Amino acid sequence: MKNTIKNILRFFNFIIIKPKDTEEIKELKKSFIHNERSFLYCGIKYLVDCLSFEASPGIAETILLELIAFKKNRKANENRLLNMGGGSGQAALLYEKLGFDVYSLDLRASSADKKNLYFDLNKDTPIPFDKKTFDVIICQEVIEHVENPWKIFRNAKELLKDDGIFIISTPNVLSLQSKIMFIFTGYFKWFTPKDFDYHINPIPEWEIKLIADKNNYDIYLTKGNGDYFLNRNNKNHKKMIRNNEILIFLFKNKNLNLKK
Hints:
By secondary structure, the chain is an alpha/beta fold. The protein has 9 helices and 10 strands.
């Protein structure tokens, strides 16, 4: 059955690849569900075994590796992480496996759970945590769902420790495929009328940079989700923007000295 499905996918021009996972990701796959899922890279369709996650392939793996690297330079108690838009809780379990003390905010969360709080990021209600509380804040595939992306950054600025990091991922509306789609339809990829129930805010890289700068953040790293599988050491920024469906941004306070 599995081979039949793969043959069907090949017929529809999917290229099936084997993931070149790091040892850390291989270890996580022993404990967490992973399966074969598809993604686009430079307009080509690929199928790869990846961690089962409420996000495109490569996003979880990229964020997890950055968290592992960040934690190596922290004290044992500097591990508090806020998952802003925690979804079903899959991500929280992975972050906890890495040793983080995880808190989540989401519309699907229970208000009775002190570490997984119900919260609407579109409302002006203050986030129910003390200022400068978290070492890491993650907003994975969330900012395109909210009405005011500037508010996300302001919330993170208030809650993040001065030497913490802020991670955002969002669809890349400046990819080659998205630009071509816009020319012919007037819509970006992931932001067509059928997507408007959930994707309401296409945010190009230049706007991310603008909001970050106005909130005194530097972009420490930018990565593409597909690069994890196909070009992990990609240092060509133009190719990264052109090829990837999703971009992952890591931010730090300006003037904070972090080793890349």
